[in-house]
Fold each of these.
Amino acid sequence: MFNQSAIVDLLNDYGTLFDQIERVRTNLTKRFHGADDAIEGVLLATLSDLPCLLYGPPGVGKSLLIRTFCGMLGLNTQQGTEGREYFEYLLNKFTEPTELFGPFRLESVDGVQELRRVEDGMLHTCRVAFLDEVFNGSSAILNTLLALMNEGRFHDRGDIRESNLEMIFGATNFPPDTEDLLAVYDRFVIRVHMDNVERVPEELAAYLYTAAGAQRDLDEGSELFEDLLTRILEFRESLSERIALSGSASGAFDLNSEAGHTFLSNLSFIVEKAKADGVGSFSNRRIFQMCKVLLVRRLLEARRASNTNPALSFTDYQVIWKYFFDKPGVSSEGFEDVFDTTFAGWDDLR
């Protein structure tokens, strides 16, 4: 599926970045008990340049996880409007578009009074945005978000401008189930379900110890990774270049190899079975985005294991039903047909 030379080159060029990402993962895991999948989803979305949605009941730590992660990137999540790089807002049905994109004021231009938007520190001018209860926004807000997430552009009264956004996160208690919201839901490529810890003594004890330690870390200050966001952007650009070269000796995808043929067969099975079971539908765009995330996952695992083998493992494939299906909690049971006998330990892994 993946070209080993591209894997090796990316690991050589960005090994230090992957090590820092692993430190971020470890740091977050120590603070958020039972949130390993959510943490991995946030990291994969960030490295893959894809919007990420956390959903689950109130109180499971969705907002705190995003704020903590952005703080580790060196973003000031508490600063005022001027010079702001991080934007956060809790949406409700009464939220006005000006609250996100900036109010208007009258300015004199060549002696003519014109309405100009005050944009400094607003959503589309910041580097990272987090929208809590994102689906509560009005149709005007959600339509603008569609363009921001899909095109990286801000549409304002017929004027189209490039957005500064480099990452966008959303959170909600429940995924939308109405037709008018599904388009925005689709733009959140990686979707992570978070839930309360299991109500048994062992899990509750583990959670309480973790929560107490997280509070202590917040009181004492947390580890920051200066310039990490800049290095992530550099990696994204290099990754896109490698993907664009697919088919050549230095490209990321090698679909003509035996491993490539196996992957295409597995992918076809997964997509068709998900559709038949009513748990997921995959557009052309979504399939491409999924392959990109699988590549990032393989790079992280290769760095962790000091092994440049480009072959996808069972845990790599798990990314698909963790983050890409439309419904939460889809079991890997029934997908075992995509794995041949060389994947040992199936019974333990599923």
Amino acid sequence: MGHIGFQEILILVVVLVLLFGARRIPELARSMGRGINEFKHGLREKGDDQKTDPPPRVEEPSSKRDSSR
């Protein structure tokens, strides 16, 4: 279980050709690759933003400091 053999790949290719046609498959693969690259780029940008931003500074309200005196 979990291993895809030659026969399964061949069946998938035949089904894809029947559904989309031979001319359309390279176009679909290209657009899918672009989408994956954009997704990865967005993840990298999100990670970079979190690393460079300093954590927000939390200050105590002035009334708390005054009441302790």
Amino acid sequence: MAETAGLKPPLKSDPMRALVLLAGFFLVSMNAFSSETWGPLVAPGDPRIAWAGRIDFSAPEAAVFDWAQTGFSLRFSGDALQLVLDPGDNNLDLRIDGELKAIIGPLPRDKNLPNIKLWMLPESTGPRVWSLSGLKNGAHAFTLAKRTGANFGPARFYGLRLDKNGKLEKPSAPLKRRLEFIGDSLPNGYGCAGAAKVCAELRPFENSGRSYAALCGAELSAEIQVLALSGFGVVRNYGDKEKRSKDPLPFYYGRTLQGNPGSLWDRSKFKPDAVILFLGSNDYSTEPNPDPKEFYHGFDGLVDQAMKDRKGTPLFVVNLRGRKVQETAVQEAFQRTKARGLDVTLVTFENAEDHEFGCDWHPKAVVHERWAKTLEAALKSKLGW
């Protein structure tokens, strides 16, 4: 059974912007609104827009977000919608009535994605305007979620417009269940859509919506937060020449935006029913390995961060079978956490078979599906869901 390599930092992407379309759906980029066709701009902070994840609203004109699976949902009536959105270097999934209709973002170099057509679009100054039309006139549910992880940087949403006959409705009732995932490339879905271990471009094959974290949240009808950085570890990041990195994952855990040290997250906004911690692959995937005491100390510190002011919240530590050094270290860290009196459960994921790896030796979506079922069973048993 092959080992999963630690996540490498993403390759630089093609700076050109493009629109990804699915058959039967029309989505085009425009540089200006027509007052004769469209209604007033709805601001990102409008209460009829339901946000999920960590979002920075400090800038008056835009909502900024960078962690995987962060985004928003809304309900509207009509047959058209316009988004004022700068995806940056990210891909974002656009769904209407639960069906994936388009992927917004930079043009992938690999143009052989199944059932997807690509159009090159000219560069424009300022925020891009994405016009969505061709819908059946009536009531619709809309969602937009960040498909790529925080390593690809932030996306910025400036607002939306409906056609003049459209109406923005009250949001659906919020999900009652909440889960927080802490990890590396795996909850980001790094490479999970890749056909082979070598991929010329990484962005098209990163799909956090198909990761075990997103699949588990969807199956359990839970709102999720994914706090994951590809290539980062508990105390040591992938490829670091030292045994301890200056900025491992815990360094960024408390931020609203991974790339903004001043954006501290208000923990009172999200109180999870459980915290799932799956980290350690990058600590041990390349040498030199961290000293055991350093790893345990770093693990304890991350647990303290995650469980602060969350007395009674269950913690689930995930271990990956088959990578002996990592498996032993995480097992010991779990035992130490348990000895501290915390409510902690160990969940073991089976490693992928050799033919089940996508880009850079990262598991394909089929493996994430198995992992999600394993985790779902543990959560249901513990939480009574």
Amino acid sequence: MLYMLMGYVVLLVGFFCLGQQAFTQNSELLLPMLVPLVLILWPLFNTYYQIRAEKPIYRPGYVHGEIDINSIREIIKGKTMWIRFKPSLATGGLIIKFNRFNEIYLAPKNNEELIADLPKLNGSINIIN
């Protein structure tokens, strides 16, 4: 994500340097170029995970949802999921298996805190290291 952001900023500066006069005269040309920048920065600064009302809530940028705590079957710690629903870009997070076949990959700042809190709410969660 950071490399994509840096590449986009370099591209934006390059366009600005090549056509500086066009951008200074028509500042509305800059708006369509800033929209992708906002879409890149939004998940970087607005990602969080919470346990609210006995439901884990995930919100990485513009994706959000919640999981019923009683439907969580298993948590795999320290692995990275490369396919399926992955609302996190970090590696070494948690794979949470819930319902019958659903999986989600979350990467909180501290895996241990989330792992310590979830079994308190649902004692039947199987933790795999």
